[in-house]
Amino acid sequence: MNRRKFIKTTGASILGFNLSNNSFASSLDFKQTPGAAKHLIYLYMGGGMSHMDTFDHKGNHKNQGPVKAIKTRAKGVELSEFLPLLAEHTDKLAIVNSMTSTAGAHQQGNYMMHTSYEMRSTIQHPGIGAWFQKFHGKVNKSLPGSIFVGGNSRTFGNRGFFEPEYAPLSISNPNEGLKNSKNPYFQDQEFHRLSQLSDKLDSKFLEKYNLDTTKSASSTYVEAKELMNSPDLKAFDLSDVSDNKMELYGKNNFGQGCLLAKRLVDKGVRTVEVSLGGWDTHNNNFERVAVQTQSLDQAMSALLSDLAESGQLKDTLVVLATEFGRTPIINVNDGRDHYPKAFSCVLAGGPVRGGQKYGMTTPDGTSVAKDPVKIPDFNATIAKALGMPWQQKVFSPSKRPFQVAHRGKPIDSLLTI
Questions:
Q1: Which of 141, 192, 209, 269 is 20 to 30 Å apart from 385, CA to CA?
Q2: Side-chain-side CA neighbours of residue 160 (13 Å)
Q3: CA distance linking residue 175 with residue 236, whole number of Å
Q4: Which CATH class is domain 20-177+240-414?
Q5: Can you give the residue ranges of every domain in the chain?
Q6: How far apart are CA 250 and CA 332, in angstroms?
Q7: Can you tell me the distance from the alpha carbon of 403 to that of 288, in angstroms, rounded to the nearest whole number?
Q8: CA distance 37 to 32
Q9: Average pLDDT for residues 69-95, to the nearest whole number?
Q10: Closest by alpha carbon to 402, among 124, 155, 145, 193?
Q11: Strands, E, within 9-77: which ranges?
């Protein structure tokens, strides 16, 4: 931080000014740490991914059930037999097997994972993608800074108390591209003329009500027009992708969402979240996890290969997260229930040290035995990997201080920075 920014930030903090709405209208504009990732691809497993049947196999313990373990590219790192493709990428993965939380319901767990805060009726907290854009701004000015892809992409937190321009663009079906991005009513020249007329009519109102809310609404409208005319709009259209490439990622919404995420990152989008729901396996856990992991294994493996081959992996942090794990004890319906006490998440790319497992659960998978990681600690690690000032406080409209990872501390051994 330079001297001018330091004085501006600390002065506003001491006086209790609202940094998010007054002092910094567009972004906080902190310089990224050298070696930090410039983009984030966040793969969210909605419903609670079974840790024991994916990244935390428990050998011959009776709680493990019928799922076998397989060896991987990384020495001493085993995965579930459901993840044979990712087994070839463990040299890139930092697997955190000691995640722990107290949020055992879906909404609360989802919210906590994305924001580091408990749900409150009085405030909405920003998600990590909004923080990333807030601190470092956009890379490509004509594209949205944050995009959600998938049927479960209604992520809790979103922009929270940040300005509207930090809200993500949501795409439910990656194969349908960006809907309503072309004006069907007017030719470009006529649309430009009408836009100028609209701006003229609005000018007195904007001058009289020179508020952050009106400026944000106006800037969002301008961004929408820029997006409509951007040559990078074609990144949303997968029709020019070869059939072989589509097969590589998997011809399903999650696979095509990961393919779209790679294209958007190539064009400078800061954050892309791709969701894969269906992990709420109270019944028939092993059959359902076999189906879920097939989509996850294929798409994430293709994404990591693609990023590595294009040289983008060093600049792109890939996160695999979920709201909680599943019970080690198998229930009467051959299923696993909600279990926030112990679960797994994964980091790859950017400054992540691959080829390791961090933390450990007990042999029966019921509790964390070594190096517990709370959700804010995991998110602080993400923030540090992205070069965000994770300790920096930003004030909400009610003048309360918040951080990107509430009181969390990064796990330095997972990173090279």
A1: 141
A2: 34
A3: 9
A4: alpha beta
A5: 20-177+240-414, 179-236
A6: 33
A7: 37
A8: 9
A9: 98
A10: 124
A11: 39-45, 69-71
